[in-house]
Amino acid sequence: MSGAKKKRRRMVILLAAIGLIAVGAIYADLEIGYYTPENLGKVAQPAPPNLAPDGNYAVAAYPLYKPQLAPGEGEQDAAAYCNTCHTPSYITMQPPLPAAAWEAEVNKMGKAFGAQFPTDVQQRIIKYLQTHYTPETRKR
Ligand code: HEC
Fold first, then answer.
1. Taking CA atoms, which of 51, 63, 115, 118 is between 20 and 30 Å from 129?
2. Measured on CA atoms in the order 126, 128, 134, 136, is the torsion positive or negative?
3. CATH placement of domain 75-132
């Protein structure tokens, strides 16, 4: 056999192989997701998990952070009224503030943010904050 003939034969074999692979790939692609009565059930589905009828699950209590307001007259008012829009721990989160700053703070909650306190409650809360949360009086 001459060299040119050999080369041509190799070329034909190579092209035939590529053609076969291409046809196989197209055929495999057509088969994807193609269900007929014959191949139904051939794709194994994962078995549903066996749920234990006597399963015992424990869930811990949801952690609720309860701010420790200093005990004293007005504590209940602060705990109730200052809890409407945000946690009353906003009080304990502050550094010790001068008495005038606390008064301004409570007034600001009303004027700027629309908090509504009965006048006597507002005075009690201001007094309470000034009694327990100034640099001179704050204990913790
Ligand atoms: C009507 C809603 C409302 C009420 C009621 C309220 N606050 Fe506020 N408070 C806000 C808003 C809004 C902010 C600013 C936004 C934020 O930080 O969440 C704020 C922020 C604060 C801050 C952080 C410093 C500042 O000025 O932003 C403090 C301290 C505070 N409030 C204290 C109080 C106290 C004490 C009371 C009870 C007398 C109170 N709040 C009641 C709405 C309210």
1. 63
2. positive
3. 1.10.760.10
